[in-house]
Amino acid sequence: MLTKRIIPCLDVMNGMTVKGINFINIKEVGDPVELGALYAEQGADELVFLDITASHEGRKTFVHLVKRIARHLNIPFTVGGGIGHLDDIEALLSAGADKVSINSAALRDPNLIDQIALHFGSQFVVVAIDAHEQEGKWTAYINGGRISTDKELFSWAKEAEDRGAGEILFTSMNHDGTKNGFACEATARLSYELQIPVIASGGAGSMDHFAEVFIKGKADAGLAASIFHFREITVPQLKKYLKGFGIPVRL
Description:
Number of domains: 1
Shape: globular
Order of helices and strands: EEEHEHHEHEHHEEEHEHEHEHH
Number of helices: 11
Distance between the termini: 15 Å
Helix content: 25-40%
Mean pLDDT: 91
Largest sheet: 8 strands, parallel, barrel
Radius of gyration: 16 Å
Number of strands: 12
Structural class: alpha/beta
Low-confidence stretches: none
């Protein structure tokens, strides 16, 4: 059985790690270089870096910051934000990224997924989907959750897989930052309908929530930010807890 992955996330704005609730009320929480090194030392399985305002501001991801973070890592490193061309990906991979996460650019031009998969391989392509649920319908958003699209979560995830995505990073905007638990039903449906791994994001507030998203939500990985940043739980504590539930994790 494949081990379940624990992935801390660095949402970065103006060079600092930040966190909000439901994609608003953003506050600074620490230096991304220091936090990345800490999580690698604690035994996180991967690290995700998202430049959360790059797409909205129409600029590239801070490559120099990616390079500084990567120097302190010995775990897979996924980078996203402001990626729109193959040249952007080349620069990030050269800076130390192992995978790239694309969201807004993929929704604007789905062919970008095909191009990245063809040039770099599907294993490098994580398609992130920020989705909001209203009246039973999950709608994908772009520009850091600011603009809605006509894409529905499940059909868009399947299209992304068909185009060559290697993983789906699903963030529930309804749950983000609330610490009330992940969107387990939607995550389970994604896991059932797709053949590629699904990373669940948005809502982690306790170790129970991780157990729930792995057991009930069938997620391949659980991503969280504030509970790690504010030292509410540590990666080793979480993994030991999950092991007690019989959930396979890398200790």
